[in-house]
Amino acid sequence: MYLGRLVRASFIDAMDSEYVQTALLKGLSDRRILFRHALPNAIAASLPAAGLVAAITITGVVVVEEVYSYPGLGTAVVSAVNAHDLPVMQACILVLATTYYLFNLLADVFAAMTRTR
After folding, report:
1. Would you give the DSSP letter of residue 1?
2. Which of 22, 42, 47, 52 has the fewest C-beta atoms lying within 10 Å of its C-beta?
3. Count of beta carbons in the 10 Å neighbourhood of residue 94
């Protein structure tokens, strides 16, 4: 819900900007204005938030797996904590932290790519 509102607000800001007004005055089609001018700028503003939401969702696997008794990385973390198994706990947390970092890095790279167009 948060991400949808953010994309909507970014898109409304992009549609109210001067470059969209200039494109309208030049006589460009609505489709070209939307996909060439407004959409890339609206997405560029919301990509970092999307990366953060994806990273939090992936690292929230611990809770979901424990609640629904799915075998996986989250279950391994909980059982390692209960058994005081430090190497397994460190490895699982390292995998989750790396995943979190990579999602944020990808979001920043994609946001930078859309800004440079």
Report:
1. -
2. 22
3. 10
* Over residues 32-44, mean pLDDT: 85
User: Can you tell me the distance from the alpha carbon of 11 to that of 39, in angstroms, rounded to the nearest whole number?
Assistant: 7
Rg of the chain's alpha carbons, rounded to an integer? 21
DSSP reduced 3-state for 60: coil
Q: Which domain holds residue 63?
A: 2-115
Give residue 56's pLDDT.
Answer: 81
- Count structural domains, the chain: 1
Helix then strand then coil, in percent of the chain rounded to 5, is: 85, 0, 15
